[in-house]
Every structure is written in C-alpha cells, then in structure tokens.
Amino acid sequence: MKAKLLSLNVDKSMSFSRFQARLVSSLKSFTGENLIADEFEDIRDVFMALQDALENDELIITVVDSRNYIRYKNALIQAFGNEAEQNSAVLNKIENVTELDDKRKKAFSTFPAAATVFVSDDGFYSGFGLENGSQCVLCLPIDNNRIDKILRDGVIPFLNNTFGSQVEDKAETENKKKHAEKVEIAVSRILKSNSVVAINGTKNAEVLKSCGDTVKGFNDAFIFTPHVEDKGNVNATEYTAQLAKVSLDLSSANIGACISDIYNTGEIKYICIAVASEQSAVVRKLYMSENETDYEFIESAALELVELIGEKALGRRSVGIEITDEPVVDNTITEKDKKPVGKKPLIVLAIILGVIVVISTVLAVIYKTQGENGELSNLLNSVFNKQEEQTTEPTTENTDKPNVSVPVINNGVKLKFSDFIVREYLLSPYSMLVSKDTPPEYITVNGQKLDAKDAIAKIVTSEIDVNDYSIEAVKAQAVAVYSSLKYRNNGFVIDGIEISDVYPDEVKLAVDSVFGEYIAYKNSVALAPYHRVSANQTLDVSNLFPHIKRVKVADYPDASAKDYKTVNEYSGGDVKGLLLQYDSSINLSHNPGQWIVVKDHDGVISNDIGYATTVSVGGVDYDGLTFRAKVVGEALLPSHCFQVEYNSTRDVFIVTTYGQGYGVGMSLAGAKFMADNGDDYKEILSTYYADITIVKEG
What we know:
The protein has 698 residues and is of the alpha+beta class. 38% of the residues lie in helices and 19% in strands. The chain has 4 domains: 3-166, MoaB/Mog-like domain (Molybdenum Cofactor Biosythetic Enzyme, Chain A, 3-Layer(aba) Sandwich); 193-384, Alpha-Beta Complex (Maf protein); 417-558 and 664-696, no CATH class; 565-658, no CATH class.
C-alpha cells in the first residue's frame, strides 16, 4: 500500500522521534514499511505536499503539534469542503473543564461531519480519519501521552475496516509460507539424520502441529505423545526439560521435545521450549513482545522449537540452558544415541503412563514430607545439575538465566545500544563462560540479517558524531559492542536498538581491525556497557559486575563535550499524562512541585545534583535507573543525573540533565579525549574496565 506521512512540527518541546517510532510501528502492518515523515514548519507547505499525496497515495497521515492542531484541523475542513459538526463524545469529556470557555470547547470538539473521530483519553487533541473510496486521510496530534489511546481504540480499528481484509489475507498467506519453509528445513534435517522426534502433547503442541500440517514428511519426522500434568516442585525450565525426556522415554524416537504453556510473572510472559536426548536437554526461555498476541507468541515459540530440533538432528551445539545427568555435556547425537524406529504396542504405553503417574505422586508426597533439604530434593538437584533456586510453582518468577533479551518496555521505541545493554542486564546480571567459537559471519539486528562487521559498524556509528571521531575510540567502542553481544549468548540476535543506515569508511576499517576481539574478566566474557557522556564520573556497579567501577574523569573532560548539559521544558499537562500513563494509580497532589522529587543522589555535580539514587513520584520511591528507563523513558531524560524544578507561573517543569546515557562503563567522550591524546583502544578499555584482558577469537 502506498502511504505518506506528513508532519507539521513547529513546537519542538515533545520528542518527535519517540512519537514517530510509536506511530510507524503501529501502522507497519498496513503500510508494509517504515515511514519517515516529511517535516514542515509552515501550514501552507503541508497542504502543498498533501495535494501531491492525494494524487499518488492510498493512505495519507498528517501529524501536527498541539500549537497548530486546531488551526490545521479547521483549514483541512475548509480545504476538503466538508461540513463541520461538534462530536458529542469529545464534548462530553471536556464540557466540565472549567478552564475552557465555550469557544475553546467548540474548537476542540469540532470535526468534519463525515469523519471518524479518534477520541483521546481526556478529549483534548482527538484525531480523526476521512475515507474517500479506497483512500484514507488521517489527522493526528503529535502527542506522546495521547497517541496510545488514539491508535489502539481509533486508528487501528478504522484502518482495519478500510484495508483490513486485504492486508490480513496477504499477511496470513505470507506467514503460512514462511512457517512451512522453516518446518520443511527441520523435517529435511530430521529425516536425513534418520531421526524421529517425539513431541510432548501439551496444549501448545497443537500449534506446532498446525505449522507443519501441509509439509511433506512431517508425520514421518514427528510423533506426538500424551501429556501427563505433574509439575511437582521444579521450576519452568526443568519441568519443560522433564516433559521432553518423558516423550523420549514413551516413544521409539531418539529426540524428545516440548513447548510449555505460557507462564506469566505479572510483568512479562514467557514460554519454555526444550529438546532432549537420553543424556541431556537444552532449554530456551522465550519472552513475549509487548504487542504480540498469545497465539502469535505461541506460534513463534513453536517455530523456534522446530529450528532447535533441526539443530539437534544435525548434531550442532545449541544456545540454551543445558540440563544433564552426566558430568560432561555433549549436545551431539551419535549413532549410539539413535534408536531403531518402530511403534510400541499401545498397552505398553498405557502401562508406562500409569507407572509414571504413580511414581510422580509418591515422589511428590515424599518431597513435601522431607522438605526442601530432604534426600529426595538433593537427589533431584544432582540429577538435573541444578543451577538456579527452585520455585514452588512454574508460573512464578524464577531465576533462570535468560538466553534471549527481555523485551524493552519503551512504547515500541528503539533504544541506543548503550541504553539497551544497561536496561537488559543491570537488573538481572549473569556471567557467561568464555567460548572458543570463531566470530560470527552474520548478526541479526531488528529482524535483519547483516554481515557481522557491517552490523557492528552501524551500531557504533549510531552513537558517534560522524563529523568528529577518533579511530582508536571507535575501535574501543567496537570491542565493547562485540563483547556485549557475545555476552548475551543468544546467537548474535538483537531487537529494539537504533542502528545507522550508513557509516564512514574509516569506521568500517576500524571495526574490521578489531573484529572478533572481546573483553574477558576472570576467564569469562565480560559485559561492556558504555555511554556517550558521563556526568563528571562514571557509576560504580562493581556489586553486580566487579570489573565496572567508578572512574573519575577529571583528566578526561566530558564537561567540554557536546550535550554534556541539557535543559528541557515540559508542560504540567504533559508531565501529568506521562506519569499516569506509566501508573494510573499514582497519587498526584495539587502541588505539581511535589510530583517528581529527587530524594537522594551521589553528588557528582554538586551538593544539589548528581546521579539520582532515589526519585519520589507522587510519594512512590524508584531508583534512578528505573525512573529513567521505565517511568519517563530515555527519550525524555538523557541521563538520570538530573534536577527538576516546577515553574508555577508558566506551569512548566524545567529539567536539567548532565551527561548522556546511564553513566555505566566507558564514556565515549572520554574515550575520544584519550584517543586524541595518543592512547590506543586497549589503554582506553583498561581505563574504564578493571582487571580485564582483550581476547582475540579465531
């Protein structure tokens, strides 16, 4: 579908990049592509562009800042020759607002008579859509606080009614084709290796079966065994591994597999998938994305299980949590592992199932009697080589080490890699052993498979000034990026980060020269977070990562760097909307000056300002990292070293920040200063990360 996005954005107080990312991600299923707005600062220029779009495009989206929204809306009504009328739903929301006179109420509630109105939460700056045959024109406010409601309850249903059937039919056909291709590859690998896979018959296994119902050879490669519910007292990953092994034992297959139910921790949903041989099981824990439906999530997990099975059939080592009853782990399938294929009598299967149920019941009683430190508990721990604390129910939060990234909670906005890494690991750090792999050929970023060196060059370039950089600093950043990607241990796949489309040749040469080098701490791959500019000192997070200590940068003057200090103003209404959007139960007093209070900080700037350690929001305390990451977001708060003041006369919040990023690890500004003064990339890295070695793969 041909689409055009036009922006009239004179008021720069709102984050347009955040707004645009949210809008584009929601409309991508209709547009089929990421739209980049044509930006204008004059209403006449917008109308000239609109005239061209009406001649060439099926979907035209116009977005307008709040300062010009009502004026633009009235001009659009006149230009289209529409009759105007007041919308009752909008009027009902604003009629009791005493600050508005009748004239302003009429202005906010007037729309084209033929329009579908997308009513905002409070009625102000509601959007609307006009339909003319197969063409649609949308008019939306540039407003980060109102856009979610407008999109969810207005724009998406409106476009579904207009374009939905053709988009859904095409998307469904494409999805089925892609799914079948993935299953075909796995079936080919299974049959080629003379293997048979037994899938535990959980309810989600039916989704896996539907993915392969049109694939030739599927029924020869896969069999489905009965499912016996007996969660016992092990966590989700171990339970899924057990089910995969049970399927193997109940069949003549030589590979067992399982896809679990959806587990819900309250904040995130996840599924476990497992593939087992007689010696061990590999389990992956997959997390649900913010905009995924349950069925979409189950389907994607089923397809990942199919790929994992294909890897197992080829004898490849797979990324995941390894659960084994042998002291030495070996993921490969040998001829000894393979059993002759045949079918056992159903009566034998029924007897085995009955025995399993009886034994499981007896074990459960013994476990409850002996308690967590009893002989049976110790036996289970030794059998499964337990690496994490058990939970009483698989559905509660457990401490499995994630092998895929936890979804970023940021309203669909892509984060800078430096912010992404801090978000992902500061709240749930873990260490990975150094592997002896060779560097990857490809890295998958935001669903796009890229040459590994190109991918790192694009990640690096997204956070440097391409007109002012130093090669040794670029090398240091490239090593930090590669080290952090390797540390994640998920096959070099990452989603939700910003990357550049292009990069200078010199950056690519610098990346090439250090490709495959990573930071190691005590024989383990080390996480290597970094940030653009520190606020005089970096943060000490050695309690989580011993190699990341506070670095005083008096000798590396970040204060002279661009964007060291920024001052932004936000209206009282915008701040209120932002806080309530995060948590609608927050109790905001009649005094806006008490809404956001920095209670404690580390004083790196002065007695009055430093990296926030405790921030009170409506009386609820958050640590500084969480406040920036989840309450307000990185786009609105460049650093959690900040000071906030409320001007009651103008009803604005004045936010002064120092530094750019979370202040953890290497400062890119400090790295550039060191490089400009003759230090090489290894000296730079050793300054910001303590007691490390630089390891070269391959």
